[in-house]
Design a protein that fits this description.
The structure holds two protein chains of two kinds. Chain A is an alpha+beta fold. Chain A is built from seven helices and four strands; from the N terminus they run H-H-H-H-E-H-H-E-E-E-H. In chain A, about 45% of the residues lie in helices and about 10% in strands. Chain B has a five-stranded mixed sheet with strand order 9-10-8-7-11. Chain B has a five-stranded mixed sheet with strand order 13-12-16-14-15. Chain B has a four-stranded mixed sheet with strand order 2-1-3-4, with helices on both faces. The longest helix of chain B is centred in the N-terminal third of the chain and has 23 residues. Classes of the chains: A alpha+beta, B alpha/beta. At the A-B interface, helix 2, helix 4 and helix 5 of A face strand 12, strand 16 and helix 18 of B.
């Protein structure tokens, strides 16, 4: 996938906003991901050039933190909580069912770009365990048998 | 407006207290009589929880509906809707509280808003069906004071959560906010530091290092730029106390950071917070903005010549960044890898400058220690662990929520009195404390008074305060494997024992849950665990074998059953299960066969069916479909 020139201009602008300071790399990456949705190689190279650091440094940071992604997320990003509270209340089965219904593995996006599947550790809604989020919406007290219906809501 | 002296702060407090006093009095109210506008109550307030947990259950919509309903009845001027932080009783959320009669509504839905307004606020009749029902007696309890969940709690760090509007600094000031700062700035900083030492406060992030001593060490290193860092990178899955404090009482953290700055002679504050906590970030930003507006952050604070300001830095999802050297590297824009100590951050931290790192809950205790005095704080708790601890109670327990109890409370009191016992009447098996660095404790540990030392002696740790209850349906080998998967995922990869050792341990555990383990594996596991504990570089690696070691010592027979008998008594390890149909109970209805995704069940209608164990994928579908209890699992 090619990143548009306009997007790369935006990346440069973000770097300049932070005075091209390498100490602000993580803040810059956050803002670039917020703007573009993901951090592909071209974007990382532009950031490296702007900040005057090796591209390997930028890549090292991007891949270290789970919050950053090098692939675009689906229109409806699904995240299943695998925190301890959700785990003991059966979130592993919920995750399996999402994989089955969506036909993708964790970290992948459906071919139509609609859904992506990820795990997360604790959204802090342990009272509702097991929990999954789709976009901003939180689904609590999930049963594997609910998943098909929930996905269908978004598929319509 | 700028508050430029302690006296100016006091006059604002008096002013702000007027609006808050009705809520203060309501907290003391014990009358069961409902207030209502038609009964002549002049002014009422509705508090609706705005914490992340309740927001996930549409509490924002409840607030919207309440406001609309008040407007429709033309009483929006007489009734305030306030959105405070977490009340703690997440199991029963969203929570709505009515002032001045202190009614505590639970599990409120957006569609209940109209009834609350018309029946209670206007008519003065409580909405019975939304009151908490005691599971033991079945009795409706209308105020939180009389609920078992709250009765044994003592809220110090959470004192303002669920009470004040966190986005209004005046409400914090009304509750003696910034008073400790004002008093401190008029005293010698060494005296203030001595008070923190005398209180016996210890770090609430896990290790329990005495906070006063930490400050004293940081004070010794002189430099033009020194930093006070608040560690808000709460990474333990299942622990959410720091988030709740930042969402419910952000100013307490800001005030404490300034007091710390005054004590150690630092003028810069940094809050390192997880990007996964958008609401906490928002509330902190609002609080910092308001503190600047009032002159409580910036130069010449309260006219005393003390300068201090705070910036926010974001984490990006790495558990190891809770370790202070890793956290500092992350704030510098690098990979969050830990480095060997010494040098400690107190000597060379953020960009080589002296840095003091404290956790959110630790800081939240500081202002109140200074206003109420170190002796008061030291009178609470056990000999070596003073004050209270906040725990996130979750898992197989009736009352999931955020609780705060004096140190020395027993696990039994927490699980059975506050937590209401194990969910679904199942048998208690273990309680996991300290997250991925902690251990699983059993029935025999239930009466230990909890403090840093006693938990460590029992093979677990205080950690940040996650507390997960497990019942007879949980397999302890799988639980150990779950935690190790987490550590392997989160290991930064810098040191060999953690990077490779934990992966080898995980492989052995996987083998055991697949039924391919040997008795030697158990010894290898134990040896490996001890080596990792002794040789890993940072706290994450050194504590990562704890879940394995504690389950091995407390539940060894379960490991042995997996290895020797190929049996998982909790029926969790799929590879060890065999499904069969009891021909005496089977009615031949074919429900199981129709539901089986692997077509492993065959038979003739009205005659007993049977399962082909080679085709069976052990999904348990037949078990859930059989109405006659004919499916057996061993």
């Amino acid at each position: 996938m090619k990143v548009s020139c306009e997007a790369l201009r935006q990346v440069e602008a973000i770097c300049r906003k932070f005075n091209n300071d390498p100490g602000e790399l993580i803040s810059i990456l956050h803002e670039c991901q917020n703007t573009l949705g993901y951090l592909p190689e071209e974007v990382q190279r532009v950031i490296a050039r702007e900040l005057g650091i090796p591209a390997s440094k930028v890549y090292g940071v991007v891949t270290f933190y789970s919050f950053f992604s090098m692939v675009p997320k689906g229109k409806y990003p699904v995240s299943v909580c695998l925190g301890t509270a959700c785990y003991v209340r059966g979130s592993d089965k919920v995750l399996e069912e999402f994989k089955r219904v969506l036909g993708i593995e964790v970290g992948e996006t459906t071919p139509d770009g609609k859904f992506s599947l990820d795990c997360l550790r604790c959204v802090g809604a342990c009272g509702l365990a097991p929990v999954a989020t789709i976009g901003e919406k939180v689904y609590g007290r999930l049963n594997p048998s609910d998943i098909k219906k929930i996905v269908a809501e978004f598929d319509a | 407006m700028i508050i430029n002296s302690p006296d100016a702060l006091e006059s604002i407090r008096q002013e702000a207290l007027k609006a808050l006093s009705v809520r203060e009095e309501s907290n003391l109210a014990s009358s069961t009589e409902a207030a209502g506008l038609e009964k002549g109550t002049p002014h009422m307030q509705i508090l609706c929880c705005g914490g992340t947990g309740c927001k996930a259950s549409e509490s924002a919509k409840i607030v919207e509906n309440l406001r609309e309903s008040l407007k429709a009845h033309g009483i929006e001027d007489k009734v305030d809707v306030v959105v405070p932080g977490c009340f703690g009783f997440c199991e029963k959320g969203p929570i709505v509280k009515i002032v001045p009669d202190n009614t505590f509504y639970t599990s409120v839905r957006p569609e209940d808003a109209e009834e609350i307004v018309s029946s209670h606020i206007i008519g003065g009749n409580k909405v019975e069906r939304l009151l908490y029902q005691d599971p033991g007696t079945g009795e409706h309890i209308s105020d939180s004071k009389h609920m078992n969940f709250y009765r044994k709690q003592l809220r110090i760090a959470l004192r303002n959560c669920g009470f004040i509007n966190p986005e209004d600094i005046r409400e914090y000031i009304a509750r003696d906010g910034y008073k400790a700062l004002a008093q401190s700035l008029q005293r010698d900083s060494l005296e203030v530091l001595a008070d923190i030492k005398a209180s016996g406060l210890r770090g609430r992030g896990g290790a329990g290092f005495p906070t006063g001593v930490k400050w004293e060490i940081a004070r010794k290193f002189d430099a033009p730029d020194k930093y006070v860092v608040c560690n808000a990178d709460e990474g333990d899955p299942g622990a959410f106390m720091d988030r709740s404090i930042m969402e419910g009482d952000p100013n307490s953290v800001i005030e404490a950071m300034m007091i710390c700055g005054y004590c150690i002679n630092a003028h810069h504050g940094l809050i390192y917070i997880r990007a996964e906590y958008p609401l906490a970030v928002h509330r902190l930003k609002v609080a910092i903005g308001q503190a600047r507006e009032y002159g409580l952050l910036g130069n010449n604070i309260l006219g005393t010549g003390f300068d201090f300001d705070i910036e926010i830095r974001y984490g990006a999802g790495a558990f190891v960044c809770g370790e202070e050297t890793a956290l500092i590297h992350s704030m510098e824009g690098k990979r969050g890898e830990p480095t060997l100590k010494p040098p400690f951050p107190a000597e060379a931290g953020y960009f080589g400058n002296p840095t003091n790192v404290n956790n959110v809950e630790t800081l939240a205790n500081v202002p109140v220690i200074l206003t109420k005095g170190p002796q008061w704080f030291a009178s609470i708790g056990t000999e070596k662990s003073k004050g209270t601890k906040v725990f996130a109670l979750a898992g197989k327990i009736n009352n999931v929520g955020l609780i705060e109890v004096p140190m020395g409370t027993t696990l039994r009191e927490i699980i059975y009195d506050i937590g209401g016992g194990v969910k679904g009447g199942k048998k208690f098996k273990a309680v996991q404390t300290g997250g991925p660095s902690g251990g699983c404790l059993t029935e025999k540990h239930l009466d230990i008074p909890i403090d840093y030392e006693s938990l460590a002696a029992a093979g677990s740790m205080m950690g940040s305060g996650g507390m997960i209850v497990m019942d007879e349906d949980d397999c302890m080998v799988s639980v150990a494997k779950f935690f190790l998967e987490f550590t392997v995922d989160e290991s930064c990869g810098k040191c060999t024992p953690c990077r490779i050792g934990n992966r080898r341990m995980l492989e052995i555990l996987d083998k055991i849950t697949q039924g391919r383990g040997t008795m030697e594996d158990l010894d290898t596991l134990e040896n490996l665990a001890k080596v990792i504990k002794d040789t890993a570089l940072c706290g994450l690696g050194q504590t990562s074998p704890n879940p394995v070691l504690s389950t091995l010592s407390n539940f060894r027979e379960e490991y042995e059953e997996h290895v020797r008998d190929h049996v998982c008594r909790a029926h969790k390890c799929k590879a060890l299960l065999t499904y069969s149909i009891d021909p005496d109970l089977c009615k031949g209805c074919s429900a199981c066969a129709r539901g089986c995704p692997a077509e492993a069940i065959t038979g003739e209608v009205r005659k007993p069916f049977s399962i082909n164990s080679e085709k069976c994928i052990r999904c348990g579908m037949c078990l859930s479909r059989c109405k006659f209890g004919a499916i057996k699992v061993i």
